Amino acid sequence: MAARGERGIVEEAQAWFNSVPPVTRALFAGTVGFSLAAGLGIVAPYQLIFVPEYILKKYQIWRLVTAFLWQPLGFPFLMNIYFLYRNSSDLETGLFVGRTADYVFFMIFCVGMINIAAYLLELVVLSEPLMLAIVYVWSMHNRDQRVSFLFGIQFKALYLPWVLVGMDVLQGNPWPILKLLGIAVGFIYYYLDQTYPAQNNGRKILVTPQILYQQFPPASGGVAGGAGAGYRFVPPAQQAGGRAQPATNVTQRHTWGSGNRLD
């Protein structure tokens, strides 16, 4: 009976994992996999972080990607993973439904911009900026949706990235550079993808390369995304005066990612 129960749990976990949209699934699996591998001592975290000297002189180009996938284990890691999973899933099954190539291009754009900024600002752990870029783009496309945060505090989704920045400040980090970088990258993407075309007769600057469409052909259909991460959607009845339920706790900024210079 116990073995049968264990098989049932494994099958349910596998079914859930397979139900996650592909880009989010790869990002989630990579983050969990590399973080656990480093936490268990299988690989040294220093082999994963962003070190330009090793990338340029020793051709350790994997750091351009693994710097986005490693986070120190702990409660902040669990919350960051939850934020990443929920917001990325919402975008991929909502705004980008049936457009996997466009979502891959969005990720490539964010990773490229953050890598450039990391080189200039001497940052080493880049998972948090990517998460905030995803949160920012989600919040802009759901700006009027009301969310309930800690202690039932309600506000429009538009303000979610700034609430996360404010949480960092309240926790003793007066200059949350990683979160601000993610917001900046998300803003640039949203401006180039949405604002600029709207102001210039539909002319677009960001165009997904054809090779990505060949690898990820457009598909029809899809399932609408959920309510986001670390908070919950407030139905119209509750917005009108019903009492909201407390939301899940938000993530905390980990202490490793401030980006000290590595000599």
UniProtKB/TrEMBL annotation:
UniProtKB keywords: Endoplasmic reticulum, Membrane, Transmembrane, Transmembrane helix
Biased composition (Polar residues): 248-263
Family of the protein in this entry: Belongs to the derlin family.
Stored SUPFAM superfamilies: Rhomboid-like
Location of this chain's protein in the cell: Endoplasmic reticulum membrane
Role this protein plays: May be involved in the degradation of misfolded endoplasmic reticulum (ER) luminal proteins.
Protein name: Derlin
Segment forming the signal sequence: none
Pfam families: DER1 (PF04511)
Membrane-crossing residue ranges in chain numbering: 26-49, 61-83, 103-126, 147-167, 173-192
